Amino acid sequence: MSHTTGRAVVIGGGIGGLTAAAALHQRGLHVTVLERAASLEPVGAAISLAPNSLRALDVIGLGDEIRDLAAWQGDGGLRTPGGRWLSRSSADAAAERFGGPLVLLHRSTLVTSLAALLPPDTVRTAAPATLADPGDADRPARVSTPHGELEADLVVAADGIHSAVRRSLFPEHPGAVYSGFTTWRVVIPVPGAEFASHETWGRGRIWGTHPLKDGRIYAYAAALAPAGERAPDDERAELLRRYGDWHHPIPAVLAAARPEDVLRHDVHHLARPLPAFHRGRVALLGDAAHAMPPMLGQGGNQAIEDAVVLAAHRDDLAAYTTARLPRTTAVARQSVKVARMNLMSNRAAIAVRNTAIAALSKAGPALLLRSFDSIADWRPPQQPYASGRTPAGNR
Q1: Torsion angle of alpha carbons 29, 30, 36, 41, nearest 10°?
Q2: Helices of type H across the chain
Q3: Would you state the pLDDT for residue 45?
Q4: Closest among 255, 245, 250, 314 to 282, alpha carbons compared
Q5: Is the peptide bond before 249 cis (omega within 30 degrees of 0)?
C-alpha cells in the first residue's frame, strides 16, 4: 500500500472504533467517525479491562485515568450456587502477576473518555455508512453515507459482530454463528449489599457479581438456551426462575432490579477465522474481525489492542494482519473452550471440573491465574506514554 496521505474514516463509534480514531488522530491523520446510532451511548453494561488493554490505552494517554476506576479490592473468586468457594483470588495477586489491575467500568464511561480525545465534529452520529470501494495502492477507498461519499486513505471497519464491511470484503466467509448460550446484564445500586467479587458456576448456567467504582453493582449471567428464546413475561422474572435460589448477594441483586434494568443478548462468535483483517485500504477491527464469547472478558480488550496496532501499521495493513490475526485467533479459541467449561451441563463432568479447580486453588492461586498469562502480558508495538503505576518491566 502507498503511504497514507492523512484521511481515515472509521465505520462504527463503539469502543474499538473510538480507540482507533484517537490513535490515528494522534498520529496526525484527519479522522471521521461514522456511527449509525443516534448517539454514542453504548448498548451494554460494563466492560472489564485487563492489563493488556490498559497498556494499549497508555499509548493514547488514557491508561492511568482508567486505572483510577479500579474497584476490585481484597478477595474474590469462584463459587458454587450454594455458596461454596471453589477458588479464591485477590486484586493484589492479580495486579502483581499481570503488572497492573483489572478494571471494571461502565461502557459509557470509557466511551466518554475516548470521545474526549477527539476534535469536535470528528464523530457523526445517525450516520449509517457502507463501503463503496475498498481502494488499492493506486486509488483511495470510498465510503457512502446518506450525505454523499467520503474518500479515505484508510477505512477502519469497526461495525460489529454482524459487520456489513466484513461481508463485503469476504463474501465467502460464513460470518457469525450462535454460540449456544444467552446472556443477561444489569448495572444497578444495591444498598447494603456487602460481598466479595465472584463468579458462580452452576449446571449450564453462570452468574457474576462485581462492584463498580461509582458504588453500583455489575451483575451478569449466562445460560445454555435456544437461539432467539425470550422470557414469556420479562427477563428479571426469568433470572429469578434460574438464579433466585443461588447464594447471597444474588437474591438481593434480583430484588433490587427492575425488568427494564435487565439486558439480554444471545452470544454469537466467528467460529472460522478470517483469512486476513484487511483488503485494499480497509482494516477490520474488534468484533468485525474476531468476535468471540465473553467468558475471558477479552472482546473489548482485543479491539483496543487492534486499534493501537493498526495506528502503528497504518501504512502497511498486511503487517497489521500479521500482528493481530494469530493472537486474536488464539484468544478467541481459548474463549470458546472456557465457555464450554463454564457452561457444562453433565453432572459428573461438573463434579470433576469443580474438584480440579478446588485442588488447583489449594495448590496456589498462581496456578489458576497462569492460564491468563499469555493474554494479560501483551504489550503494544509502540512505546506507551509514561505511566507511574505501570512497572518499568511491563512497558
Answers
A1: 80
A2: 15-26, 51-59, 63-67, 91-98, 107-115, 164-169, 235-243, 250-256, 287-290, 299-312, 317-342, 347-363, 365-369, 373-376
A3: 85
A4: 314
A5: yes
| pLDDT given for residue 395 in this prediction | 35
Q: Other C-beta atoms within 10 Å of 47: how many?
A: 24
pTM for this entry: 0.93
DSSP 267: E
Which DSSP helix (H) or strand (E) runs through 48? strand 46-49
Residue entry with cell 503494544: 380
303 vs 324: CA distance, rounded Å:
10
Counting as low any pLDDT under 50, the low residues of the chain are: 1-4, 385-395
The pLDDT assigned to 95 comes to 81
- In this structure, the chain runs to a length of 395
CA distances from 273 to 11, 284, 288, 340 (A): 21, 12, 11, 19
DSSP 303-351: HHHHHHHHHHTTT-HHHHHHHHHHHHHHHHHHHHHHHHHHT---HHHHH
